[in-house]
Amino acid sequence: DSSEVKEEVLRKDDRFLTLLKDVYVESRDPPVQVKGGGGEHLPSKQEEKRLTKLGHLEALDVKKVSKGKISLVEALTLLNNHKLQPQIWTAEKIAAEYSLELKEVNSLLEFFIPFTVHEFPKQTKKAITSHKPKQLT
Q1: Is the pTM value of this prediction over 0.70?
Q2: Is the pLDDT of residue 61 over 70?
Q3: Which of 71, 111, 112, 131 shows the greatest Cβ crowding within 10 Å of its Cβ?
Q4: Which residues pair with residue 66 across a beta bridge?
Q5: For a pLDDT cut of 90, what percent of the chain falls above it?
Q6: Residue 66: closest CA among 52, 53, 47
Q7: Using CA atoms, how far apart are residues 131 and 137, in angstroms rounded to an integer?
Q8: CB count, 10 Å around CB of 70?
Q9: Residues 6+ apart with CB under 8 A from 77
Q10: Average model confidence (pLDDT) for the chain?
Q11: 13 vs 36: which has the higher pLDDT
Q12: HSE on the CB side for 120, CA within 13 Å?
């Protein structure tokens, strides 16, 4: 019966209350261990930064990046430069120019290719727009 259960739940048991009063919980954090002896907290490695090479696209991207990394606009710029002038913008020149490792530049040039945009001549656009669609019956 639900009434018996309700009474059992709401009834206080003095024996359990006295046992609960005897319980004492103490919590402590483990002691912090310092590695390396020094008491100061200093960053273990300071990243070396370089200014980005964006030219007229400077407002579109970050101003500084870590050495060994490039920004998104720089990546698109160097990929486009390599696509347009592969003899001038070789992997070695890109690695030196952007402070990157040669194997990473080779992977970048191998696996990432910028899209090519093709514009149709105006005559073709006109011919396409003037074509009347067939009516279905």
Answers
A1: no
A2: no
A3: 71
A4: 49
A5: 17
A6: 47
A7: 19
A8: 23
A9: 53, 54, 57
A10: 76
A11: 13
A12: 8
DSSP state of 40: S
Strand, coil or helix: 51: strand
For the record, the structure tokens of 91 come out as 């992997």
Compute, in degrees rounded to 10, the torsion defined by CA atoms 17, 22, 28, 30.
-110
Contact 94, 103 (CB under 8 A): no
Q: Whose CA is closest to 44, among 33, 35, 31?
A: 35
DSSP assignment of 59-86 equals: GGS-SEEETT---HHHHHHHHHHHHH-T
Residue 51: how many CA atoms within 13 Å on its side-chain side?
4
The backbone region for 33, taken as left when phi is positive above 0, alpha when psi lies in -120 to 50, beta otherwise, is: beta
pLDDT value, residue 90 = 93
Please state, in angstroms and rounded to a whole number, the distance separating the CA atoms of residues 84 and 77. Answer: 11
Coil/strand/helix, residue 91: helix
Burial classification of residue 99, based on how many CB atoms lie within 10 Å of its CB (0-12 exposed, 13-18 middle, 19 or more buried)? middle
Q: What are phi and psi of 135, to 5 degrees?
A: -90, 135
pLDDT over threshold 70, residue 16: yes
